Amino acid sequence: MAGIVTYGAYVPYNRLSRSAFGGRGERAVSSYDENSVSMAVEAGREAIRGAGPIDDVCFVTTTPGYAEKLDAATICAALDLPSAVRGHDLGGSGRAGLTSLLLANDMAQAGRRPLVCVSEVMVGAPGGLREAMAGDGAAAFTFGPGSEASAEILGSGSATEEFMDVWRAPAEPFASQWEERFGVQILVPLMIGAFERALAEAGVRAEKLTRVIVDSANPRAARGFAAGAGIPGDLLADDLGANVGRAGTAQVGLALANALDRAEPGDTIAVVTGIDGADAMVLEVTDAIARHRPERSVERWVEAKRNDLEYNTYLKWRGVLPFEKPRRPDPKRPAGPPSRRAERWKFAFVGSRCAKCGTANLPPQRVCVQCDSIDETEPEPFADATATIATYTHDHLAYSLQPPVVMAMLDFEAGGRFPCQLTDVDPEQLRLGDRVEMTFRCLHTAEGIHNYFWKARPQR
After folding, report:
1. Is 332 inside any structural domain?
2. CA–CA separation, 446 vs 330, rounded Å?
3. Digit-coded pLDDT (tens) for 115-163
4. Whole-structure pTM value
5. What integer pLDDT is reported at residue 339 of this predicted model?
6. What pLDDT does residue 171 have?
7. Which one of 60, 103, 289, 419 is least enclosed by Cβ atoms within 10 Å?
8. Do the domain assignments include residue 171?
9. What is the domain-level CATH number for residue 165?
10. Is residue 261 assigned to a domain?
11. How is 282-323 classified by DSSP, letter by letter?
12. Burial (Cβ within 10 Å: 0-12, 13-18, ≥19) of residue 3
């Protein structure tokens, strides 16, 4: 037996009101400096705390940072995992979210300890249902033996058939979807079949379930499954649709993390996905859940927000709306050799601390900035360190999709001072002494290369 050991989630700071589409509620929107990779890192940071060694990193999305390059390698570097870790990129279908969790459980049963990061930046054609109902977010899960699991996977079931429901060709910016009634006719029987096989393998009767998570790109299919399987409404888990939106491959991850945040030992949870076929699994929550919950719950991420994003700004961030670029020199692409030489600093934000005098050095130095000792420093991670703003400035001339650029001098509580760009911040609300934390972002993209580094944000 194997299962989920630790988990984490991430919901971006910005919200877009659905009144822009004539709807209700709001959707979560990744910032101009976020993508599926950076959000996966944020969720992964939550999941790996207390998880022990990691053997595999599986990155799952339909909106990758690169069409051809291992995004999982960036996640490994940002999480400061050893190079012996095996990286995997999975995607191609919204169904890949739950499929990846089932694959990870199989890996754990074989003795490996995988980390799965599901993340999505959902973009739909303006005026369409996907734009209005989708949302951005990420979740991450580590898997291990049942003796350590917070939630053991008792059984699973799947169904795969070829039919056209949701599709997008490589060169197309937006996905298309067939008429909903056609999808319902195909998906609902497949979802019910996978669900019943998962219950049978788990040895659990449907009436003994504590919570059921249902996800489909076809909302009518999700409702049809619940009715056809006889699932009462009070058993259905919150799909976060009102305040986050459907997050593609990350949807089941966010909903499962939200359910685990509230679960008690002995609870039995079923997860069902109906996209390009169906997957289902049944989990039982164990006594280990109390000590493996993340620092930030899904609810905490959802509540920490700014909900005044303008629709035109959202379209500009997603590259949907043409706009005049800043009248500044285009940023240069980062070069491979220096990025490689500074990998632990650039991606994992690992500085150094002098073994002789104890001074923190940011960036890491061979020569201590305080006592001038040479090669007497040790690596010191700062990605999880908190800091306060010593001074800051608004730069209205720097190249940015969201001017002004806010630069601050940070004093870290663990020691060390560092000039850093701020993000997810209202420039007019900044004050000296504000506490901030680090977040993995994309400084800019030039000639097809993402320049990842760390910024600071107000504590969430």
Report:
1. no
2. 8
3. 999 999 999 999 888 898 999 999 999 999 999 999 999 999 999 999 9
4. 0.95
5. 86
6. 85
7. 419
8. yes
9. 3.40.47.10
10. yes
11. EEEE-TTHHHH--SS-HHHHHHS-B----HHHHHHHTT-S--
12. buried
